[in-house]
Amino acid sequence: MYCVRKVTEDLYWVGGNDRRLTLFENIHPIPRGVSYNSYLLLDEKTVLFDTVDWSAGRQFLENIEHVLDGRQLDYLVINHMEPDHGASIEEVLIRYPDVKIISTEKAFMMMHQFNFDVDGHMEEVQEGDTRSFGKHEVTFVAAPMVHWPEAMVTFDLTNGVLFAADAFGSFGSLDGKLFNDEVNFDRDWIDDARRYYTNIVGKYGPHVQALLKKAATIDIKMICPLHGPVWRSDLGYFLDKYDKWSSYEPEEQGVLIVYASMYGNTESAVNALATKLAVRGVTNVAMYDVSKTHVSELISETFRLSHLVLASVTYNLGIYPPMLNYLMDMKALNMQKRTVALIENGSWAPKSGALMEEFLDEMKQMTVLNEKVSVLSSLNEGSAIEMDQLVDGLIESMND
Ligand code: FEO
């Protein structure tokens, strides 16, 4: 059975949801599922904007057939051809053999790499090109590395709708509610939106900044992303989040404590730290065990908060492997502009502090506080004094 939503008077959401998938990109947990959005415009010409992952393919094809109501499909605009959106392209071609695909040169190149049989359907466009479909005239804007190099976004000059590809998307399936004003985004969606952005697109902040600069020159009334809710109000809220995330500025002053503990002693030390911070009035503190928190959540929280405490046991004279994995992910995603405090632990040769500092030194604009704590097996009177000094250093830095 079809399941569609009207977006504007002549634009329909025809996508689908996947609540069965455990890991997005086979790496990021998505307990709330994910939506694959596609939009169908009924003008003098009929125009489909992007397709869906094959897991939602059957629903998608029923949706298109219902909305077209016997009409042919004239155009398929592919803003982003990664298979979570491009997987159903060939199925569309089989059902609508006269359709023309509008996309970028790189996207067509990749379609061929994925063995999509699109020859005879291709209509290549470049930045600034326009197309009229009747009442609606659209223009195409290059969006390289948001999130693949072939990506573009399409702006409807007639009604201000931006088909934003992966930009402004979110993890989470749509349970009937399509629009941002039908959900409590700041309560129910922002964590998934942040985790989506930071882990999927986070590395490409400068490219997102370039897209935001272009977006500032056009009068956007509505944002139709390829995942998550459609934005038709309060656009500034989400644009501001994207501006912060893509410039690696924290959303909030606060402390993220990520610890690696084998027998509970490092955990005990950071419990003492968090308590000292609370007593001193610093309550925006989040604490995670690196061994039992998925790294995508740690990355998301690292983008959210201004200060970071890394507390790691020494393991085989190195950094505890899950902590090293988190550090490597931070580096891979271009994380920067954070103030970091270090706590190391070791029973015979604590080395993790120096090793973590070396790692952070290779990242951009990471400030490591001079105050450090070195724990020998468990916090004692001497290391407790270091911890007090570390708390002083953190609070001083937060008040700067
Ligand atoms: Fe949602 Fe880059 O694909």
UniProtKB/TrEMBL annotation:
The cross-references to CDD domains, in alphabetical order and at most eight, read: flavodiiron_proteins_MBL-fold
The UniProt keyword set, sorted, is:
Electron transport, Transport
Pfam families attached to this UniProt entry = ODP (PF19583)
Presence of keyword Membrane: no
Domain (Flavodoxin-like): give its ranges. Answer: 255-400
Look up the record and name the cofactor or cofactors this protein needs. Answer: Fe cation
Q: InterPro entries this protein is in?
A: Flavodoxin/NO_synth (IPR008254), Flavoprotein-like_sf (IPR029039), Metallo-B-lactamas (IPR001279), NADH_oxidoreductase_modular (IPR051285), ODP_dom (IPR045761), RibonucZ/Hydroxyglut_hydro (IPR036866), Rubredoxin-O_OxRdtase (IPR016440)
Name the Gene Ontology molecular function terms of this record.
electron transfer activity; FMN binding; metal ion binding; oxidoreductase activity, acting on NAD(P)H
The keyword Cell membrane belongs to this UniProt entry's keyword annotation? no
Write down the Gene3D superfamilies for this protein, in alphabetical order: 3.40.50.360, Ribonuclease Z/Hydroxyacylglutathione hydrolase-like
By sequence similarity, the record places it as follows: In the N-terminal section; belongs to the zinc metallo-hydrolase group 3 family.
Protein name per the record: FprA family A-type flavoprotein
Q: Which species is listed as the source?
A: Hominibacterium faecale
Q: What is the lineage of its organism?
A: Bacteria, Bacillati, Bacillota, Clostridia, Peptostreptococcales
